[in-house]
Structure formats: structure tokens, C-alpha cells
Amino acid sequence: MKKFGFLLFLVVMMIAFPKMADASSYSAKIYLDGQQINVSSGAKVENINGTVMVPIRIVSENLGFQVDWSKATKTVTVQDGSQKVTMTIGSQYADINGQRVQMTKAPVLRGGTTIVPIRFVSEQMGMQVRWDNGTKSVHLTSGNAGSNPDGADGAHTATVDGISFSDNKLMVAVTGNAKPSISKLGNPDRIVIDMVNTEFSDSFGTMNDYDEVNKFGQMAVSGYSDVKSVRYSLYNSSPLTVRIVLDLNQPANYTVSGLENGSEILTVALTAATDPSPGTSGKKIVVIDAGHGDHDPGAIGVTKKREKDFNLAMALKVEKLLANEPNIDVVLTRSTDKFLELKDRAKLANDLKADVFISIHANSGPSAATGTETYYYDQSDKALAAALHKEIVKAMGLKDRGVRYGNFHVIRETKMPGALLEVGFMSNKTDESKLFDPATQDRVAAAIVRGIKNYLNVN
Ligand SMILES: [Zn+2]
């Protein structure tokens, strides 16, 4: 259980911080209980983006485990007593005594030889694995040769082995009996985790940014609405205390799990921005997309006005109103006259895990065509489109052309409910003058905000 937990952590680390891995492809040296393994000729050790891969022959000949290879299923089985690890060429998932576990790298075929990630295999087979980055070598320790995290004085000291942040969760890998106390502080907003009788492990610096002398480090966090950065330090030396601080952009709620039932991973999951159910304390994220921009003017009106300018004016007005809403965070895809690819507009909303996406446009057609249309892409968009449409039609006072299906990139590729507004026709004289009338724009902006709030059921 212990090993399994840390392994999962390693996998998360590799996914979260691929740049930490060494991308060079030198040959690493391998030591078993202090003795360098002489890799037989033809068997090449590879370093693939930081994962040291060894021919399966090393696992059987040098490490002494039973290895079976099935050509038919392309699987390698490594066995020692009751411990059994099965890996498949090209698959990142291994089977450990019936349990599916993800590896950092899938086994691959190299000129008829199967190469496997040595850390993964060795750890699963009960070995301790240490990577020496200075000498680019793997050190394996067999048997139960002592893990001894306790301090020399025999005090019950735990160690922090690694810290990562992904999927809006802080994960702290801990060995030993750590007792975290967690508190939420304001001014500036942050979450503080203190662990008494705990220090950083010797290997902590190989995985995390860490100043060994002053015993602190930090990691920048991007792509999350709540968290700015994570800092950590040996806050106190008597008693030894590790402090981890999550610097927040705004107050956020969290749940804590782990460090009980033998778990080695403390998880602090932030809940505020991603809470999907309306009416709770979590803030909703609304992305407003002003269509077109820069060299793409969109529709040109009867008096040569440009759709992109209407779209941007509206987005800015909606943003201003939403900024006053205590339960909503608003993000614009563009706040200036710049161009964005459609896929980047959708990606922004998806990356933010936004609750609502609204793309603002104005229509074009025969000069007689007039009125307001609102588009949805699939069933999950429909309620949002209807809530917005009802309000916008009232605010514009033009013909109600209905809530319609439309296969538009931005509402197709966004994962959250989305709607595309065609507020009025640039190609119609009456519509165009309304679209560019500041008072009408204010009314439509307020209508969009009402529609959003009704849909999200927030006050
Ligand atoms: Zn448009």
C-alpha cells in the first residue's frame, strides 16, 4: 500500500511536471546494492524523457526476477513470490496483482528487445530506487534494507518526499506519521498547511524546486482560477515544521483527504471554482466571447459599421456588470481589438472549466431580414440559450427569430453549456442603428446578465 501510494504520486508528478524530466537520451548507469550492473552487449539502457528504460533481460539476469514473455499478447510478466507485474507493449497501464496502475512510460520494443521502465518494475518488486542526477545513475537497493525516515535522535519524524499541484489539487507525498494542520487565511488569501515533526526528505530536491541550503522552494501554478502558486519551507527547526502555502487569487474552499488508513498522500482539493451545482458558495465562471476581431471584422453593416466592434463593446459591458456579481467570475476571450482562432476561444473556456460560455455576434442577411436569434449546439446548451434569448429579445424589441440549432465551432467545442448570440442584423438599417446605440447596448448587456443569472440560479 505504501509503495503503491508513492508510485501514484510519481505518476502524477511526471504528468504534472513533464519539464522536470531530463529529455536527453544518454545511457544511464545502474547500480544494484552498490555494485554497477554490467549491461551485457546489445542490451541498451535508454533514457526516454526522464524515464530510464532497461531491456527486460536486465530484470531477469541482473535483478533475478522471473520474467515471462508472451509473443501472442505482447505482454511481459515479472514475478517474485506472490508479487506479479504484467505489462503490455505500448500500454501505459500495468497490472499489479490484478490492480490496474499507470506507468510513466509504456514498455516498447527495440530491435526485438522489450525495454521497461526500471523504476516502476523495481519498486513494484520491493526494491528501493534512487536516481542520482549528478552521475546519471540508478541505484537499486534490494530486500528490506532499511528505510529509516526517523531522525537520529529517534524522534518520530516524518518526511515530505514531493509536492505537486494538478487537477486543482495539492498533493503531498509523505513518509512517516505526519500530522498536518490546515488553515485558511485572508489578506492575502491563502491556505496554510503546517506539519510538525516533519522535514523534507533527502530526495525532495530532485523532484521539486528546492533551495537545499535555505530549505525552501516554490512552484508557479497556471491554468487554475483559484491558485496562483505553491510555496514550501522548513518553517521551524525546533520542532521541525514543514509549511506549505497555497497562494490564492480569491478565497477558496477545500477538502482534505489522505494520511489516514496508511495513505502516504495528503490531498488538499480546492472546491470553490469547480463546484457544478448552482446556488452553493462556489463562484461560477462565465466566459464571454466577443466574436471576430482585428483583421476579421465580421459582418459589415449598412452604414459600414463593423460587427467586431459591436461584439467587443457588448462583451466589455457584460464584463463590467458581471464584475459586480459576488457569485460570478467573468473572463473575456478578448478585451481588445485582437484576433483569436476559434479553437483558442473554446480552449480558454475548457481550460478554465467555465460554467457558461457565451459568444456575442451580430447577423447578416438580406436587407429586409431583422430580429434576434440565439444558437445552441446540443441539448445541454438549450436551457442557457433559451434563458438568454428571452431577455435579449425583450431588450432589443425586434422580431423574435427563435432559439435555433447551429453547428458553430465555439459552442460545439466548448465542454460547458454555451450559446451564440446573433443580437440583430448588421445588414438591416433599423437593426444596425439599435446595435450601435449605447443605451440599447446597456439594456442588452443587462439582459444577458439576467439570462446568465437565471440560468445559473445565482443571486
Ligand atoms: Zn459574427
UniProtKB/TrEMBL annotation:
Domain of life of the source: Bacteria
InterPro entries in the record, alphabetically?
AMIN_dom (IPR021731), Cu_amine_oxidase-like_N (IPR012854), Mao_N_sf (IPR036582), MurNAc-LAA_cat (IPR002508), N-acetylmuramoyl_amidase_3 (IPR050695)
Indicate the secretion signal residues: 1-21
Q: Pfam families recorded for this chain?
A: Amidase_3 (PF01520), AMIN (PF11741), Cu_amine_oxidN1 (PF07833)
| Entry keyword annotation includes Signal | yes
Keywords (alphabetical) are:
Hydrolase, Signal
Query: Where's the MurNAc-LAA domain?
Result: 346-453
Entry EC no(s): 3.5.1.28
Q: Which GO terms describe its molecular function?
A: N-acetylmuramoyl-L-alanine amidase activity
By what name is this protein known? Answer: N-acetylmuramoyl-L-alanine amidase
The uppermost taxa in this organism's lineage are:
Bacteria, Bacillati, Bacillota, Bacilli, Bacillales
